[in-house]
Amino acid sequence: MNITHAYAAHNTKSALVPFDYTPRALREHDVQIEVLFCGVCHSDVHQARNEWSNSIYPVVPGHEIVGRVTAIGNHVSRHQIGDLVGVGCMVDSCRSCPSCEEGLEQYCEEGFTGTYNGQDRQTGAITYGGYSTALVVDQDFVLRVPANLDPAGVAPLLCAGITTYSPLRQWNVGPGKKVGIVGLGGLGHMGVKLARAMGAHVVLFTTSPSKIADAKRLGAHEVVISRNQEEMEQHTNSFDFILNTVAAQHDLNPFLNLLRRDGTLTLVGAPEHDHPSPQVFNLIMKRRRIAGSLIGGIAETQEMLDFCGQHGITSDIELIPIQQINEAYERMLKSDVKYRFVLDINSLRA
Ligand code: NAP
Ligand code: ZN
Ligand code: ZN
Question: What lines the ligand 1 site, CB under 6 Å?
Fold first, then answer.
């Protein structure tokens, strides 16, 4: 197979730079994909910089991938050459543990294989992600992209979309429920759109007053500046569910206080440094819960894409050539992105 052009991080501090590699030869169940677009997730920064202490260099990030099938293995039945497809955070799992059997491959008891910074289950080779011109992936981990949606705007659904969709469904968000989304970044703006489409009353919490108008345009019924104590206290004991997408360490107590009895605060943000432990009495007195949630399974990811197709939902993106990836990281770290960078991978083919 042809050389694949990519961008890689080689250590915790340096900028990402061009990197070429040869992908694995097509196996019987593999699909070869010409990558068209790849979203830039905050997890890419965490791993490019080894903030989760698990990076294996070189790291070729990217797990919000949309592309076209260019070749298929002899036993591929689910996809055809020419199909528009997506790949998210996983490219394999053990497929036989209880979680895999339930379609919850993200919780695979042996650990799922990451699209990048993972290890191929057969060869042990390090996986490389979507900041690349091409990708080879087992057909079972390849998603169908709804034809009516803009493919560049679909890319972020493969991580930001499913990571918010899955907990919203798990905690039964819908009509009659008051739902909070904390942080208006890549995940948060998808959380607002999806919770609104599910019929809930949606409140967006932000540290950025400049995002108020956008949050309402994206679907929030109300916007609260989370650093304003008075505004926060107006919502005490009123939420059924709050989804926290913040990528940095912070105090959880102000959000716990807003949950009604039996309400749940679910964390999806995965900061480098843990949040301080919240006050136990804040939980005890109202039987409140704190939970976590990790992306979503393959079947649920397809369900989310189909839901987005039906509701005309895509991500609000800034499309950039991959050569601007390092500036994009710096802007994302300043919460200065509306609301997801997507890399135009054609810029790597020129
Ligand atoms: P992002 O686009 O950078 O958005 C994060 C948002 O958090 C920012 O836009 C900002 O919103 C808010 N924020 C940032 N720093 C803050 C601070 N110091 N205090 C309060 N709020 C702050 O990041 P993302 O791509 O959405 O990812 C968010 C987090 O989720 C990352 O840690 C990522 O690794 C993690 N993640 C987890 C999963 C999972 O499966 N659990 C999947 C994907 C990503 P405002 O300006 O509105 O305040
Ligand atoms: Zn991600
Ligand atoms: Zn498994």
Answer: 41-43, 46, 159-160, 163, 183-188, 206-208, 211, 245-248, 250, 268-271, 293-295, 332, 335
